[in-house]
Design goal:
With 320 residues, the protein is of the alpha/beta class. Helices cover 40% and strands 11% of the residues. The protein is built from 15 helices and seven strands. The strands form two sheets. Strands 5-4-6-7 form a four-stranded parallel β-sheet, sandwiched between helices. Strands 1-2-3 form a three-stranded antiparallel β-sheet. The chain is globular and about 50 Å long.
């Protein structure tokens, strides 16, 4: 296949794939139908080539801006209940590393397995935005557990639009990323890790085929009944809560937006060492339906029509 990754060819990866503009003159590169940021492609390649999951590993997968930060705090708290206080001093992204950024990113050596500075407590927890269509073979070979979180496409789009406009350099530009352009690119699928619908369906289908290994959860159901789904996560991860309701409530409260966003580390304007955004940009609003405050009715209608076409015809009635 023309766009396929060749595991034996690490050099010239970015230059070898189709490119398209997504924000102003910024480019994305297409691999196996997905549009990826060039800066992250070497790390993604190293994940696909060198990462060998253990059966006890936990992988949090997500499309960008669908609840990753919240799920990181929940998964860490559920599996490290005696260390739940770590969330006070550490941003959730520092506690659960991204495979393609923290673990196999550009500053990491290749071919050495998991670097020594990665958290090796068992179970190991990693996160990724890599589509299942690329990562599935690696995940299936190990029997590890995968948690995938998705979010309403319109809220995902608006959250990403806000997030991009907080990037270092973007804020100083005369022209920020226009929302109409963001809508156009989202619908065309030319979006970081996009197309969104293909990304979601890859993990959705995997969860139906391998329910013991892949748990699919929506941001909205977590918001509507966090306690029930924290219990569900605990059971899936092999860390059941039993009859201890207070422990469930402690996890839910400690990982709530109100509590997490109040910690000094998460209020910081300092830039993360691994991405050019301030830590407080990961905690904006955390609401459901915020897109109504930003998207024009015709944009909502366009995305809803696309959602019916992409999701509903596959029996996944979601997103509208």
């Amino acid at each position: 296949m023309e766009n396929s990754i060749n595991p034996t060819d690490n050099e010239g990866l970015v230059e070898s794939f189709p490119e398209e503009k997504w924000r102003g003159d910024e480019l994305l590169c297409q691999i196996n139908g997905f549009w990826l940021m060039p800066h992250f492609i070497p790390g993604i390649k190293r994940v696909l080539t060198h990462f060998k999951p253990l059966p006890t590993d936990i992988i949090l997968s997500s499309f960008p801006k669908t609840g990753t930060t919240w799920l990181k705090s929940l998964l860490y708290s559920i599996t490290n209940r005696s260390s739940i206080h770590s969330l006070v001093q550490n941003n959730p992204h520092e506690l659960i590393p991204f495979l393609e950024i923290h673990v196999y990113g550009e500053s990491k050596p290749t071919g050495l397995g998991i670097p020594a500075d990665t958290n090796l407590d068992s179970p190991r927890i990693f996160s990724t935005h890599i589509p299942y269509q690329l990562l599935g073979t690696t995940l299936e070979s190990s029997g590890c557990r995968v948690v995938y979180v998705t979010r309403n496409p319109k809220d995902t789009l608006v959250s990403m639009w806000h997030f991009v406009n907080r990037w270092k350099g973007v804020e100083e530009e005369e022209k920020p990323w226009e929302l109409d352009e963001a809508v156009e690119k989202f619908c065309d699928g030319v979006f970081p890790c996009g197309p969104y619908y293909d990304h979601v369906l890859g993990y959705r289908m995997a969860s139906l085929e391998r329910p013991r290994n892949v748990l699919f959860v929506t941001y909205e159901e977590l918001k509507s009944d966090a306690k029930t789904h924290v219990r569900r996560l605990g059971e899936f991860l092999g860390c059941p809560f039993g009859e201890d309701e207070e422990e469930v409530e402690e996890v839910v409260e400690s990982c709530s937006f109100e509590v997490l966003s109040g910690h000094e580390v998460n209020k910081s304007e300092d830039l993360a060492s691994w991405f050019p955004v301030p830590y407080n940009s990961f905690f904006r609003k955390a609401s459901v339906g915020d897109h109504k405050n930003y998207l024009r009715p015709e944009s909502i209608q366009r995305i809803d029509e696309l959602t019916r076409e992409k999701f509903h015809k596959f029996g996944f009635v979601y997103g509208i």
